Amino acid sequence: MPRGNKDIGKPSQNGSLFITDLEDVFFGSIVEELMVGVVQSFVLYYQVDGSKSEVSNIYGETTKVYFKNPVKIFCIVEEDEGNIDSNQYGMDQKKTLVCWMHRRRLEEVSVVVQEGDFIEFGGISYQIITAIDTRFLTGVAKFRDTIKVTAVAPESHQDLNK
Questions:
Q1: Strand locations in 4-123, DSSP E?
Q2: What span, in angstroms and rounded, lies between the C-alpha atoms of 81 and 91?
Q3: Which class in CATH covers the domain with range 43-152?
Q4: Calpha distance 25→142 (Å, rounded)
Q5: Whose CA is closest to 42, among 79, 81, 78, 77?
Q6: Which of 4, 103, 118, 146 is the most exposed place for a label (fewest CB within 10 A)?
Q7: Distance, CA of 106 to CA of 45 (rounded, Å)
Q8: Domain limits of the chain?
């Protein structure tokens, strides 16, 4: 929560001498502007619709997955070239995608990042395996402004638009 003008220059209650709530809001707005206006990389976020998805009674696994409408999320994206594994069935390429998503931006579009959801980047769908709160900007525990999302491409690249 931003502080008023009377609090400018006073140390923050978060234990940091140099990063106050006011600087956190300022840095957050700069990062958001860079992601949207300069970098302009984005992913399409597909939330699993648990109310419509079909679950197997025997194992509790989802047999048919339904998604809510995709949401465009601007973020910083790091895509690896993929690892190629060979086994008795042939070769398999596994790709990993790491995204840094700004928390304020996620709140604006009402997205809560969850493991098991899908993101699409460059025409390839990836399943989220981890979502970690980070202190990307300030390093202060109170300011968790970025979510680091790691996702992997399933062996059968699903078309999420079906």
A1: 42-46, 54-55, 62-64, 71-79, 83-87, 90-94, 96-102, 118-121
A2: 15
A3: mainly beta
A4: 12
A5: 77
A6: 4
A7: 10
A8: 43-152
